[in-house]
Specification:
2 copies of one chain form a homodimer. Chain A is 43% helix and 18% strand. The longest helix of chain A has 19 residues. Strand 1 of chain A pairs parallel with strand 4 of chain B, so a sheet runs across the interface.
Amino acid sequence: MTYDHFFAEALMRLHEERRYRVSAEMERLAGRCPSAIWHSSQGSKPVVMWCSTDYLGMSRHPKVVAAMMVTAINTGVGAGGTRNFAGTNRPLVELECGLADLHGKAAALVFTSGYVSNQSAISTIARLIPDCLILTDAFNHDSLNEGIRQSGAEKQIWHHNDVAHLERLLAAAPNRPKLIVFESLYSMDGDIAPIAVICDLAERYGAMTYCDESHAVGMYGPRGAGVAAREGVMHRIDVIEGTLGKAFGCIGGYIAGTHNLIDAVRSQAPGFIFTSALPPPICAAAIAAIQHLKESEKEREQQQKCVARVKAFLSAAGLPLMATATHIVPVTVDDSAKCRLAGELLLRDYGIYVQPVEFPTMAKGSGRLYITPTSLHTDDMVVALADALVDVWKRLELPLRLQMRAAA
Amino acid sequence: MTYDHFFAEALMRLHEERRYRVSAEMERLAGRCPSAIWHSSQGSKPVVMWCSTDYLGMSRHPKVVAAMMVTAINTGVGAGGTRNFAGTNRPLVELECGLADLHGKAAALVFTSGYVSNQSAISTIARLIPDCLILTDAFNHDSLNEGIRQSGAEKQIWHHNDVAHLERLLAAAPNRPKLIVFESLYSMDGDIAPIAVICDLAERYGAMTYCDESHAVGMYGPRGAGVAAREGVMHRIDVIEGTLGKAFGCIGGYIAGTHNLIDAVRSQAPGFIFTSALPPPICAAAIAAIQHLKESEKEREQQQKCVARVKAFLSAAGLPLMATATHIVPVTVDDSAKCRLAGELLLRDYGIYVQPVEFPTMAKGSGRLYITPTSLHTDDMVVALADALVDVWKRLELPLRLQMRAAA
């Protein structure tokens, strides 16, 4: 029997459904962020990246880079094994203290990625609660869904951000443990969960809460502790999950909660136990980023200013912007072929890298261009982005809204 | 309803079963590897680590550390997002080329950890093969088992390294696709799979093969390509999985195989798609380690010499060494309480860090001390290790074998 045809056929299906994707090769330039070199078969050229989760440019912050370098010299690159086997490293212990402090929790636990943290933590937590019912938001990230699936626990999906629906589901399961799983900030629609109401419901119906703050930590709330902190309800959430790979500019994920919960997950989660620890230079870099963003408002202010500017310019130009209350700026394109083409033209002809997102992330036939303004984009870059988008819209005969108001 | 008691109870059960573990805090010293500083509530003291998967000391190799530093300066720490969203980074592309070359395969794909590579690759591969039957070795690592579980495919477990049993299972399922999942080198018993026979059987019964070489890459075979390469059968294996976190001294995992297989996994595996890419400085460090170990035999020779010396000294001293044909040196202790105590005494009184492994990894009541000699342990360290073990054995009244032969 030959097997390669199974994989060739899977690829053919993706091509037929126009779902086959190739990642552009981008060489990010620390000194000129958000500029990068795009390497393709046609050669190399400079581009501006408008598509990254390094929202505050912390990956190239001198303190962060220096922390990685010093630690690499002192302790080497890798951790040398799992934490049980090769011991835990000092920067990892310090990182967990810093994260617990950030979220006002007793303890924190670091995983090798945000994806792994959700997958491992939820599956372990739910397994430790007999007869646990998981109530999960319909728009939750794949990593949360994977953790729920692996837990084997019963789950019920509540309509996205619909607290009335959540309440009906809670009320219908009065005499059993319940875990509410949600995100504070959903990256696809750029919208915010009604966290305070979810906490009210959790308290009223005796449920536990697990909140993914991946797209919010570093960027919102006092000391960058996230949206729940901004809304004054962080202390009411049982488990806060976050990532070190977006605003903190590194890689890794974590949960923060009570001593017992963190210690139980540490002791029981296979995805934590049987995997090499995060390298000390990564931990040190993350510590530097978190510490800096606890003290500095500058990056958050600059990013928010840039977000407002991008929204104002694109809106004034008549581009079909989705309204969001966050740093996520999706531009809708009601034709997925044109959406993909727009991304290609922007990259090839205007040196602007924006990722088109299509089916299955979007409904079939439609698409979106995701623009993520960072603290490092300049005013000139915003103008160039708006001009390029308008030009591409005209070339592709996409509709521009008539706008009366001038650019902000 | 309160939830903390669920976690407190889980911890109590672990304590009752004597399974509760605390990771020692080790500050590895790049310049004096395998020495480290052990930080505990009693203060800090220097120790020698005999327990690490940084088998060849590559995590502190000047080329590896320099590659991390230069790349951190040039591109920053983090990758800035998933590969689909933020683009793929140049060191990652080069790393995958180097890995494909190492294993003589058409392509390779890098994941954020070895654990994730097994979990994501196997679950995706098996899902793409309709009616796939997975035949899995009984001693396979948790990450392989997790991938199998997530695939939802039917599985049958063959007795560890028992090719007669494997053949019976293969013969019993003639008319369906079959995937044989195994490791080349099992870290718990330090034994080697009969890879050539497995390949024979796979060809005879039309099965596909997936071989985890995590504990072998960098250390065995020409250019450090692993045990399958050493035995001249690497080209007969469909998928080779390896880690960047052990002999290569970094973090991350990978698979190597045909273009179609790698491209299909890249396009379909959630654990690959929805997670931030490995940071460029990590990729660059891994490239340096792999390249160095393709060319240099020195580290492999030094490690093997140290392994032979440890085995000879411990055996001559009458310590109950398990016979292995690999770099894994397990010392058996038929009393799990004394096993744990031995680890504590070695660390506290002799400055030697060796990890005791007990239930559930071992059968209940028994334990093992895992010793992993590296290329950087000196002859004096080996003597000190043997002396300390003998001393601890006497203090704990553990049996020493009478040995006639002198130390090698």
